[in-house]
Structure formats: C-alpha cells, structure tokens
Design brief:
Length: 165
Amino acid sequence: MPKKREIKDYSTDPAAQQMLIRAEELGIGTAFTRADAMVPCNIGGAGMCCKQCGMGPCRLTKSGDTGVCGATIDTIQAQNLTRAIAAGSAAHSDHGRDMAFLLKATAQGEAQGYMIRDVAKLRMVAGYYNIKVDGRKPEEVANDLADLYIAQFGQQRRCSMPAGR
Ligand code: SF4
C-alpha cells in the first residue's frame, strides 16, 4: 500500500511547504503526492527491467536470468544507468551551449548587461586548456574560451575537453 508522507518530507523550504499545503487544500496533485500514490514496480525499481529494444520489455527476476538478447542483470543495470545519465546530460547540454554563446557575446560586447567580473577565474579556467592569457585582455581570453566550449558541442573526434580535464 502506498504511504503518504508528511509535507516536511517533501521539502524543507517553508515557502514550498506553504504551496504544497495549499495545493492539497485545493485537491491539486503534485509530483510528491503522485509519487506517494504510485506503488513502485519491484522489478523496475531494482533496475532489472529492460525495454531498450523491441524484443522486450524483458523482466529479469533472479540471478542467472537473461533478456531475449542474452543481457544479464548486471548488463541491464549498467545500461539503464548509463542511458539515464546520457539522457539527463543531453537534456541539459543546451544550457551549457547557451552559456558558451553568452560568454562569446559578452566577450564581443554584444550581451547587454553582462560583463566579465571574475578575471582571475577566467584566467585560471583558460589555463586548463592552454589558452594564452599573458598580455591579453579578458575579453580576448573569454572569446577563445567560448570558442573552445562551443566547439565541444557536436564534436566528432576526441574526448570532450571539459570531460577530459
Ligand atoms: S534485455 Fe535485450 S532483448 Fe530485452 S529489451 Fe533489453 S536489449 Fe532488448
């Protein structure tokens, strides 16, 4: 049977708690109440369900089981974890790309209201990638750093430089 948690277990933020109480008063469901109402699947919850191809879903329930393709529980759990990380990273990579474009625009004086405030940090980060800093303006360094970051998106060869670092 699903267990309903206390509001304090949903969030420690008093403002969020206030909103969650109000939502309950109005009978509006939230991610928290829906999670409480959902009984987790034992097999999926343990990472032993695979639906990565059309031959499945395969549900493995005991040691030694394999999916239709021969994948073991260990393989499926590793795949599930890796794919979840890849999907999450991909979903957020556009934020990183926007940051790189914003850095470029700031370096070129095209981002109204933005400026390079932490020059020491800029020089330190540029140093990670062997970008020349001595005798150069912060904007020049930032422009090179932005170009380096922008080039990482869709890169076809070699390891991503921030990941490599
Ligand atoms: S275990 Fe293999 S066959 Fe089954 S869904 Fe996953 S990839 Fe497909």
